[in-house]
C-alpha cells in the first residue's frame, strides 16, 4: 500500500496532537491488505471523529492535518462509495490540509470512480464515427495526469467554457478581434485548404482583410485563407488574457526520444488556428505534448498511435494519406495497419484535447473555427 507508506513518512509534524497521533500511526502501520479487519476500519473512523471534534474546538493546524490523513487512511479500508465520501469530507472539512494532500485525494477519488464506472470511451453527441477518443468525465488531477493520464489522448468536454474568449471577450466576434489588433496589423496566412497540394501558398495579409474574408460568404472559386500555427497571442498580447493555460503543461513527463520541450524560457509554445470551414491540417506528428482547445466552431479530429507510422506513407512528419476519406486505394497499408487503431472525435467550443508527443493527428474544420494549441 504505497499510499500508506507515504502517509507514514510525513506524520511527524502531527505529534502536537498527542495520543491521537500515536493511535493514527499504529493504525496506519497495520497492513490492511493482509489484515482487513473490521476493528481497523472502526479504529480509523473513531480517529477521524475525534479529530473532527478537536478541529472544531481548537485552531491548532495539526488537527486539520490529522483529520485529513486519518480520512485518507480510513478511505483505503472502505467500500468505494464510502471511500469517496470520506475523501470529499477531507477536502470540505479540513481543506485537504498538508503538502500534496489535495492532489493525492483527487487522484484516489478518480481511481476509485474508475472501478465503479470507468471514464473511458464515453460517447457523446459530439463524437464522430469510428473508434472514439477517450472522454474523461472530469479533469484529472495533476498527479493523475503525471502518473497515467498523459500516456493516451483524452478530451475534456467544455473544459474552457469559462474562458473570457468564450464569454465576455468572445473570439467568435471579428469586431472584438479587430479592436484587439488595431488598424494596420498584418498576419501570415495559408492560401488553400491543404498544404500538400500544388496550389497551396503562404502570404502576409492585413488582419482586417483576413477577418473580412471570414465574415464573407465563401466563394468556391477563391481559395480559403487560413491562419495556421501562428503565435497570434504573442503578436496581440491582449488575447493571452482571454485564455487560461492548463496546469497540465507544467507537468514533469517522461519524454519519448527526440521529443525535447520547446526551447524558449517558458518551454511552452502557444499557437492559434483560425479559418473557415473545410480547412484541413493533414495527418502529421509533432515532437511535443499538446493541450489543444477549441474556442470557436467545430473541428473533427483524427488520431492514431505512433506505432502506426509504417502505414502512414509519410514524408518527414507528414502523411500522404487523406485520413478523412472513406477509401484509400493508393495506400493499401493504411487500411491494414492504421484504420483499426485510428480514433475520431469532433470538438466543440470549450473542449480540450490532450495529445501525447509523437501521435499522428489530423484536423478538419466543420465550420468557422478558432483553436489554440499549447505545445510543451
TrEMBL record:
PROSITE patterns: JMJC. It comes from the Eukaryota. Residues 234-376 form the JmjC domain. InterPro entries: Cupin_8 (IPR041667), JmjC_dom (IPR003347). Gene3D superfamilies: Cupin (2.60.120.650). This is JmjC domain-containing protein.
Amino acid at each position: 500500500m504505497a499510499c500508506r507508506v507515504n502517509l507514514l513518512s510525513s506524520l511527524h509534524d502531527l505529534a502536537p496532537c498527542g495520543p491521537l497521533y500515536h493511535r493514527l500511526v499504529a493504525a496506519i502501520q497495520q497492513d490492511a491488505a493482509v489484515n482487513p479487519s473490521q476493528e481497523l476500519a472502526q479504529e480509523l473512523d473513531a480517529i477521524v471523529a475525534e479529530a473532527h471534534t478537536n478541529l472544531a474546538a481548537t485552531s491548532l493546524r495539526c488537527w486539520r492535518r490529522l483529520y485529513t490523513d486519518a480520512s485518507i487512511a480510513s478511505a483505503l479500508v472502505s467500500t468505494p462509495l464510502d471511500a469517496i465520501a470520506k475523501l470529499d469530507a477531507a477536502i470540505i472539512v479540513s481543506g485537504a490540509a498538508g503538502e500534496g494532500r489535495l492532489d493525492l485525494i483527487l487522484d484516489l477519488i478518480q481511481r476509485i470512480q474508475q472501478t465503479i464506472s470507468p471514464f473511458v470511451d464515453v460517447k457523446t453527441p459530439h463524437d464522430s464515427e469510428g473508434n472514439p477518443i477517450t472522454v474523461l468525465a472530469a479533469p484529472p488531477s495533476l498527479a493523475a495526469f503525471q502518473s497515467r493520464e498523459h500516456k493516451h489522448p483524452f478530451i475534456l468536454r467544455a473544459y474552457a467554457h469559462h474562458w473570457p474568449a468564450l464569454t465576455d471577450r468572445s473570439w467568435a466576434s471579428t469586431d472584438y478581434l479587430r479592436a484587439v489588433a488595431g488598424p494596420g496589423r498584418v498576419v501570415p496566412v495559408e492560401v488553400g485548404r491543404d498544404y500538400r497540394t500544388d496550389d497551396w501558398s503562404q502570404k502576409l495579409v492585413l488582419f482586417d482583410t483576413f477577418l473580412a474574408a471570414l465574415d464573407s460568404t465563401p466563394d468556391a472559386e477563391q481559395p480559403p485563407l487560413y491562419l495556421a500555427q501562428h503565435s497570434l497571442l504573442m503578436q496581440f498580447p491582449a488575447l493571452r488574457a482571454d485564455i487560461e493555460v492548463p496546469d497540465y503543461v507544467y507537468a514533469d513527463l517522461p519524454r519519448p526520444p527526440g521529443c525535447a520541450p520547446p526551447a524558449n524560457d517558458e518551454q511552452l509554445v502557444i499557437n492559434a488556428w483560425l479559418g473557415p470551414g473545410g480547412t484541413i491540417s493533414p495527418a502529421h506528428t509533432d515532437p511535443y505534448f499538446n493541450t489543444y482547445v477549441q474556442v470557436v466552431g467545430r473541428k473533427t479530429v483524427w488520431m492514431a498511435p505512433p506505432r502506426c507510422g509504417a502505414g502512414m506513407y509519410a514524408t518527414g512528419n507528414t502523411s500522404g494519406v487523406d485520413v478523412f476519406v472513406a477509401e484509400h486505394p493508393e495506400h493499401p497499408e493504411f487500411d491494414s495497419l492504421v484504420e483499426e487503431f485510428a480514433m475520431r472525435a469532433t470538438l466543440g467550443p470549450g473542449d480540450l484535447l490532450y495529445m501525447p508527443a509523437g501521435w499522428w493527428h489530423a484536423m478538419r474544420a466543420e465550420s468557422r473555427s478558432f483553436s489554440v494549441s499549447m505545445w510543451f
